[in-house]
């Protein structure tokens, strides 16, 4: 039984899927264009000059842009950002940030480590920040730097602004369809038995798959079981009329496989 992951290949997904008894296949749907043009001058000014009291990072792609921006900063620029609180969506994003910028930017040697708050979902981060704002004694509105992509959802910034936060939003990347997507689909096909899985990781990934003309996507969405990495992607699939058979409790391969195995073992 094959699991068709509509994402780029990773060793972790490969190994854990095989350990669970499935055959992994990967179809890269999305590509990114990174831009640090707006971020670099902001980082050079420093948080004090801008009144920034924390940074929101919701994607590993923003970490890539931060790393690129860091390469042109001076040590004086980096020094200004020591101790800035970081608010992050996803353990994998936090791990990538800490590993990629080790001894750099927010993590200079011999300096106090920044406080890092990590949640599984953007809605949970919004809950945390709204509660934090309610407990603040300072009447000055907190000012957060919000690093986001071009297809970010409205829920997080809307809730924070309603709670009194000031946000400076910087677009750090743009998502686009992978140039080889149609070619990949032409050369791979799911089982005709209907026991394969198609697994999706974002609403934009679903939309880009469906946007191909002529559409080769029907077979993937009608002849396989469908799984989603989280409720946002699942809700989007359902709004398009597709049944979602498994949803990961948390956005990780372990929880994704748990949901798939549970369905396969307990379905009628």
UniProtKB/TrEMBL annotation:
GO biological process: protoporphyrinogen IX biosynthetic process; uroporphyrinogen III biosynthetic process
Superkingdom as given in the UniProt entry: Eukaryota
Domain Tetrapyrrole biosynthesis uroporphyrinogen III synthase: 12-257
A Gene Ontology molecular function term of the record: uroporphyrinogen-III synthase activity
InterPro entries: 4pyrrol_syn_uPrphyn_synt_sf, 4pyrrol_synth_uPrphyn_synth, UROS/Hem4
Membrane-crossing residue ranges in chain numbering: none
Any Pfam family matching the protein: HEM4
Entry GO CC: cytosol
UniProt name for this protein: Tetrapyrrole biosynthesis, uroporphyrinogen III synthase
Native species: Absidia repens
């Amino acid at each position: 039984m094959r699991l068709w992951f509509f994402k780029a290949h990773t060793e972790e997904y490969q190994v854990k899927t095989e350990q669970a008894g499935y055959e992994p296949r990967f179809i890269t749907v999305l590509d990114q264009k990174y831009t640090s043009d707006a971020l670099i001058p902001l980082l050079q000014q420093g948080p004090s000059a801008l009144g920034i009291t924390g940074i929101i990072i919701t994607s590993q792609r923003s970490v890539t842009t931060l790393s690129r921006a860091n390469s042109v900063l001076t040590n004086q620029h980096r020094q200004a950002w020591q101790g800035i609180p970081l608010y992050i969506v996803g353990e994998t994003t936090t791990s990538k940030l800490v590993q990629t910028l080790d001894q750099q930017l927010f993590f200079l040697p011999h300096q106090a480590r920044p406080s890092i708050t990590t949640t599984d979902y953007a809605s949970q981060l919004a809950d945390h920040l709204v509660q934090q704002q309610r407990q603040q004694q300072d009447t000055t509105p907190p000012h957060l730097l919000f690093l986001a992509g071009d297809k970010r959802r409205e829920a997080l910034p809307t809730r924070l602004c309603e709670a009194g936060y000031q946000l400076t939003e910087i677009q750090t990347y743009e998502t686009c369809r992978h140039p080889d997507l149609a070619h990949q689909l032409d050369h791979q096909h799911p089982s005709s038995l209907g026991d394969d899985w198609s697994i999706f990781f974002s609403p934009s990934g679903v939309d880009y798959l469906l946007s191909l003309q002529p559409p080769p996507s029907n077979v993937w969405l009608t002849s396989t079981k469908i799984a989603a990495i989280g409720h946002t992607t699942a809700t989007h699939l359902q709004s398009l009329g597709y049944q979602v058979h498994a949803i990961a409790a948390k956005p990780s391969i372990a929880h994704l496989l748990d949901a798939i195995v549970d369905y396969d073992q307990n379905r009628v």
